[in-house]
Amino acid sequence: MSTPLRGPVTATARHRTPAAEGTARPVPTNRVDLVLGAVVLFGALLSAGLTAIAGYYGSGDVAGLAVPYALVLGAAVALRRKWPATMLIVVAVAYFVAVTIGIPELYAGNVSLFIVFYTVGAHVQDRRRALVIRVVVMVAMAAWLMVTIVQAALSGLDAGTLGPSQVPAFIASQLAGLLINVLYFGGAYYFGERSHQQAQERAALEQRTAELEAEREVTAAQAVALDRVRIARELHDVVAHHVSLMGVQAGAARSVLTRDPEKTRDLLTGVEESARTSLRELRQLLETLRTSGGDAPDTAPTTHGLATIPALVEEATEAGLPTTFTVIGELDAEPSPLLQVNLYRIAQEALTNARRHAGPGATADVRLRFDPDAVELEIANTGRHGPVRTGLGHLGMRERAAVSGGTVEIGPRTRGGYLVRARLPLAFAANASATTPPEATRA
Questions:
Q1: Are 323 and 366 in contact (CB under 8 A)?
Q2: Higher pLDDT, 285 or 264
Q3: pTM value surpassing 0.70
Q4: How many angstroms separate the CA atoms of 36 and 404, rounded?
Q5: I want to staple 58 with a disulfide (CB 3.0 to 4.6 A). Which of 96, 102, 110, 339 is the partner?
Q6: Residue 397 CB partners (closer than 8 Å, separation 6+)
C-alpha cells in the first residue's frame, strides 16, 4: 500500500476576510472560490483519467468512482471558507477512502487537502477549534501512515521481497515519505497561522486608523471650540473695559457739564481716546484672526503686559476710581509674553468690575509681587462688592489663570469691597521675550 501522502503541495490562497465557521455572518462563496473549485474538479478528472490509462497507480475496477471523488474535492474547495472545519473533515475522509480502495487519483486530493487544511488555520476565528480539528487530522494521518508502513513491511517479509539487503532501502523510502508528510502538514499549518495573524494585524491597523481619524476630528473640533473661547474672551476684555470706561467718563462729564466746562472737555477727550483705543484693539484682533502664521501683518499689534499695568492704573484713577500700584520684589527672569498678557487682562477685568460695582468713594489697590517661582497679582477695592455671581468676566479670569498654569481667587472681602488674587508660576517664562519692567513704587 502506498503512503497516505506522496508529496507536499505548496499552493496557498489569500482571502479577503477571515471568518469563523458557524458565525452569524458566514463568509459567502465568492467567484474566486468557485473558480478554484472548478479548477480542482477539472484537475481531479484529468489526473484520474491519465492515471487510469497509464495504470501505474490505483485499481481500474473502481475507476468510475473517480468522478464522484472529483466532485467532492471540487465542492469542498469551493465551500472551504464557508464551512472550513466541515470541509476539512470531508476532504480527509474522501482522501482516505480513495487511497484505501485504490481510486486512480492522488495529486488533486493532495492539493485539495492542503488548501482546506490551510483554510482552517487562516479563517476559523475560534482558535481552539481550529487547533483541535487540525491536530485530529494530523494524528489520524500519522496513524494511517504508521499502519501503512507496518503493513508494507509485513507484506514484504511474507512475500520474501524484503530481505536483509532491501531493509536499508525500505527504511530510507519510508523515512522520506514521513519527512514529506511532516513538511506537507507543517507547511499548511504554518501558512494558515501566519495568514490568520496577518488578518488580525490588518484588522487592528484598520481599527486604529479609524480611532485616529475619529480622534483627529475630535481634536479639530476642540481646537475650533478653544479658538472661539479665546476670541470671545479677548472681545469681552476689550469691549467690556473700554465701553465701561466710556460710560463712567460720559456720566462724569454730564454731571459737571454746566459747572466745569474744562473738566467736561477733559472727560470727553477721555471718552474719545477710549473709543479709539477700543477700535484699534478690535482691528488688531481681527487682523490676527484673518491672517495665518506666515502672513502676519506688517504692523504688529500692541502687546499688553506688566509694563502697561501702570497705564491701566492711571486710566482707572482718571475714570473716578483712585487706584494705587505697588510692586513687591524683583524679577530674576522675564515672564513669558502670554503670562504678562494674562496678568494684564486679569487686572483690567478686576478694575472694570470695581468701577461698575464699588460705588462712589471707592478706592482700589493693585499689587504685583514677584516670588522666586511665581508672579502674584492682587487687585483689592473698597466700597460695595456688588452681586456675587460668576459672569463672563470671572470665567475669563479663571481661564487666563489656567492657561498659564496658575490659580485665581475671586470674592468679597470681610472688611468690605472685593478681592481678586492671581498667582501664575514663572515656569511659563521659557522662551520669554524681553519687556520693560513697570515703573512703580518699590516696597
A1: yes
A2: 264
A3: no
A4: 67
A5: 102
A6: 345, 346, 349, 350, 408, 410, 420, 422
